[in-house]
Amino acid sequence: MARMQFFLLFLEIVLAATSFLLGQSSSSRDIMMGNSSLIDGQTLISSGSAFQLGFFSPVNDSATSYIGIWYYNLPPRESKVVVWVANRNRSVNTSMASLNLTSDGNLILFEKGTEVWSTGTSAELNSALLQLLDLGNLVLTAGNSSRTLWQSFDHACDTLLPGMKLGFDIRTNTSWHLMPWTSATDPSPGKYVAKIETYKVPDFYTVSVNGSLKLFRTGPWNGQWFSGLPQMGNNILVRDVNFTYVSNQNETYYIDEYQTRSPQLNRLVVDANVTYKSWSFVEGEWRVFLSFPSDDCDYYNHCGRNSVCTKGYYSTSCRCLEGFVENKSIVGCTRKEPLLCSSNQFSKEPGVKVPDTVNATSGGNISLNACKKLCLDDCFCIAYLVINGPYGCITWRGELLDLRSFTDGGDDLYIRLPESSTSNWKELVWAIVVIPVLLGILLLFCAGVLVRWRRNRASTSRLQLQFPRVQKVIHSVILVPDSISTLDVLPSYDLRTIKAATNDFSEGNKLGEGGFGIVYKGQLEDEQKIAVKKLSRYSSQGPDEFQNELSLIAKLQHRNLVRLLGCCIEGDERLLILEYMENKSLDAFIYDKTKRSLLNWQKRFNIIIGIARGLLYLHQDSRLRVIHRDLKPSNILLDKDMNPKISDFGIARIFEGDNALEDATTRPVGTL
Ligand SMILES: *[C@@H]1O[C@H](CO)[C@@H](O)[C@H](O)[C@H]1NC(C)=O
Ligand SMILES: *[C@@H]1O[C@H](CO)[C@@H](O)[C@H](O)[C@H]1NC(C)=O
Ligand SMILES: *[C@@H]1O[C@H](CO)[C@@H](O)[C@H](O)[C@H]1NC(C)=O
Ligand SMILES: *[C@@H]1O[C@H](CO)[C@@H](O)[C@H](O)[C@H]1NC(C)=O
Ligand SMILES: *[C@@H]1O[C@H](CO)[C@@H](O)[C@H](O)[C@H]1NC(C)=O
Ligand SMILES: *[C@@H]1O[C@H](CO)[C@@H](O)[C@H](O)[C@H]1NC(C)=O
Ligand SMILES: *[C@@H]1O[C@H](CO)[C@@H](O)[C@H](O)[C@H]1NC(C)=O
Ligand SMILES: *[C@@H]1O[C@H](CO)[C@@H](O)[C@H](O)[C@H]1NC(C)=O
Ligand SMILES: *[C@@H]1O[C@H](CO)[C@@H](O)[C@H](O)[C@H]1NC(C)=O
Ligand SMILES: *[C@@H]1O[C@H](CO)[C@@H](O)[C@H](O)[C@H]1NC(C)=O
Ligand SMILES: *[C@@H]1O[C@H](CO)[C@@H](O)[C@H](O)[C@H]1NC(C)=O
Ligand SMILES: *[C@@H]1O[C@H](CO)[C@@H](O)[C@H](O)[C@H]1NC(C)=O
User: What start and end residues bound the annotated signal peptide (predicted)?
Assistant: First the structure.
């Protein structure tokens, strides 16, 4: 699943790179000079046509309008995706409102002559200039030196665009933060704030406006991403994005910058969740590529203090840290025995989220051993951890809050233990090392016996597995929309022609043997090369039904699918005439030591992209929906230019007949 997403991401980048979308110039105005105004119906459009500024109404009623910025070039244009609102708190009646840039450099929104909102700036007479930039920033500058008086990027609403800062400006003592809309139709600030808390170890939180309730936190910066969001790391390479965290004597902020992808295709939005969205050319819509909280364990301190939250496949569980026991009177766990100043043992809690840093201290970029010593030197230190990046060694006093485990990623936390609990050390080793090892050996032995037994038994590679407790896991094989006609029929060849082409199905013409039958190479009289699949078994369908079925499959045409050219039905013989693929199948390459080296990374990449395209077509873009159910390297064929083509799609239907049409089947199929 995750790999599939990766392929699609690559695909997006390719499409975005070749896309027409951004960068064309426009004759519309993007500038407003001093002593001029903007009224209903007038807008500013950024020079690259990415953004538009003007009046909009979230309820489509001109009496409740706002000044805002939205995407201009990305569809759907009808439903504006608003990224910034000036007068969040108070709507205006557009028929009586105007946005004036005064000659002395103040941008004011008037309704019936009264001021509703303003930037409160001033400049020398007629030197101010308002411009909507192509990154979505509305900038007010003054004087011939273009001094920035005000910019919308400093007054974010619920959306963080690339290039916008999230953090704290020490010089002006103000924070750059995000606040969600109250509702989809009301842009006024909602109950929560997403901000970077500048403790000794900064952390990105979403908290209630009154500050008393933390909703979730990302963990501190590890130099590349927020440590509590390992998913973020996966996106850096694929999306070609630099997530950056800057901290100096003037300011401390988080910012993201895109390198090759157009920055305008990305935004971070705060609503009930914090969500990274990216415009998808494949889907034609905004797709979420990162969202938190992503599960219950992401909610702040879900398991209470000194307790680790683990997300399982079906449920979420809580577990006390080593040395702690559950305490019914509080949420979470308390120490079994008090810590003494002389306690010098630690237990390692691997792959967890860095606990809340509100009271934590950073020892800077030092080694793990130096960090341990730092903790031992402090009688009250209860845990330490070293992350990458500027904060390095982090130590805690008091309690550990908001811990979760990660299956992939996360950091190793060292928890200080009271001395006594280390005396059971040997028993512990016995319990956690020796017993599992013995169990493991026993299991391996059983597995070996089982495998041998299976090998002797399984004569074909295609197995239909039956599980005692089945879940609805696999959906329909093919859904046939009513509108599809089966009138135009697939070309039919007579058996004599095919016999001639394949040298009477000679052993020398045999290409391989798949789950459904033997495949032969052939050449028609007009020199066209073909592959002939001789079906070894099929459902009891009559010849007409069989041919109709094939006609449906033949309609699935895509450059990454093997084409069905025709069929041959005579007596009991059922033959499929397919496109001939010079380079046979992918497994012939990847499982062969010498041929493997012929596949360089570029070729592998192209093959991956091709498979992803073919699957996307089968799953979504074709008129028939097909779930392959047996995708494997031997079903990926390669043409003479090493372009991949998926084969054997939809064939299962021929074998399984009407059962395959069910919307949901409870039976897993495929290759063992
Ligand atoms: C603003 O413009 C109006 C007409 O366009 C003009 O009469 C007025 O003098 C201008 N005000 C300033 C301060 O330039
Ligand atoms: C908004 O209202 C106008 C007129 O009332 C209507 O023509 C238009 O379709 C509406 N737009 C949306 C998006 O509802
Ligand atoms: C908005 O202004 C127009 C024109 O002045 C007026 O007819 C309309 O009633 C106003 N709407 C509201 C809700 O005040
Ligand atoms: C909006 O209103 C709230 C409370 O009414 C106030 O705290 C906040 O400063 C206002 N925001 C703006 C941008 O005027
Ligand atoms: C704002 O600009 C409009 C159009 O230029 C003008 O009619 C109006 O008087 C201005 N409002 C104020 C309060 O200056
Ligand atoms: C630019 O501003 C400086 C100082 O405000 C002034 O001395 C200079 O003449 C200005 N230049 C132009 C071209 O307006
Ligand atoms: C910064 O602002 C906060 C409240 O907004 C205030 O308590 C604090 O004193 C200010 N600090 C400085 C240095 O102005
Ligand atoms: C703060 O806000 C949260 C959420 O809106 C609310 O549950 C809590 O009671 C508030 N606390 C105080 C002290 O107002
Ligand atoms: C901080 O601001 C001062 C004055 O604005 C500037 O001289 C200095 O270079 C800034 N420091 C950094 C690290 O940006
Ligand atoms: C991203 O980071 C790399 C390496 O740190 C740097 O070379 C590149 O200039 C950065 N790109 C942007 C857009 O900041
Ligand atoms: C927030 O995320 C949760 C869990 O992923 C989801 O159930 C919920 O619908 C999301 N809320 C919004 C407003 O997107
Ligand atoms: C941080 O310290 C304060 C004051 O000692 C305490 O009230 C609070 O619970 C501590 N928070 C955490 C997360 O340890």
Answer: 1-16
Q: Which residues of 458-484 are buried (b: 16+ CB within 10 A; e: fewer)?
A: eeeeeeeeeeeeeeeebeebbeeeeee
- Give the integer Cα–Cα distance in Å for 324 and 502: 74
Reference 264, options 27, 49, 32; nearest CA is 49
Which atom from ligand 12 is nearest to the alpha carbon of 359? 1
Range from 274-283, 330-339, 351-360, 431-440 carrying the lowest mean pLDDT:
431-440
- Fill in the amino acid letter for 374: L
Query: Comparing 27-36, 91-100, 634-643, 653-662, which segment has the lowest mean pLDDT?
Result: 653-662
Options 1.10.510.10, 2.30.29.30, 2.90.10.10, 3.40.50.300; which CATH number does 1-154 get?
2.90.10.10
| Residue 451 banded pLDDT, cuts 50, 70, 90 | low
* Maximum CA extent, the chain: 94
Task: Determine the Cα–Cα distance for residues 326 and 305; give it in Å rounded to an integer.
Answer: 10
Alpha-carbon span 583 to 150, nearest angstrom = 62
**pLDDT tens sequence across 146-192:** 889 999 999 999 999 999 999 999 999 999 999 999 999 999 999 99
Peptide bond into 58 cis (omega under 30): no
Whether 329 has a pLDDT exceeding 90, the answer reads: no
**So what's the pLDDT on residue 621?**
79
Phi-psi region of 203 (alpha: psi -120 to 50; beta: other; left: phi over 0): beta
- Closest atom, ligand 12, to C-alpha of 396: 14
The residue with tokens 């001021």 is 115
DSSP code per residue over 216-237: EE---B-SSSBTT-HHHHHHHH
Ligand closest to CA 59: 2
84 lines ligand 4 (CB under 6 A): no
The response to whether residue 106 sits with its C-beta less than 6 Å from ligand 5 reads: no
What tens digit of pLDDT does each residue of 363-406 get?
A: 999 999 999 999 999 999 999 999 998 899 999 999 999 999 99
Token pair for residue 146? Answer: 């273009």
pLDDT beyond 70 at 434? no
- 50 Cα to the center of ligand 5, angstroms: 28
Q: Is 401 in the pocket of ligand 12 (CB under 6 A)?
A: yes
Percentage with pLDDT > 70 across the chain? 80
CATH architecture of 587-662: Orthogonal Bundle (1.10)
User: Would residue 630 show up in a list of annotated catalytic residues for this protein?
Assistant: yes
Catalytic residue selected from 30, 630, 641, 663: 630
Q: H-type helices in 464-618, by residue range?
A: 495-501, 543-554, 586-590, 593-596, 601-616
Task: Give the closest ligand to the alpha carbon of residue 274.
Answer: 11
Q: What is the mean pLDDT of residues 444-471?
A: 47
Quote the pLDDT of residue 472.
28
Rounded to a whole number, what is the distance in angstroms from the first to the last CA of the chain? 19
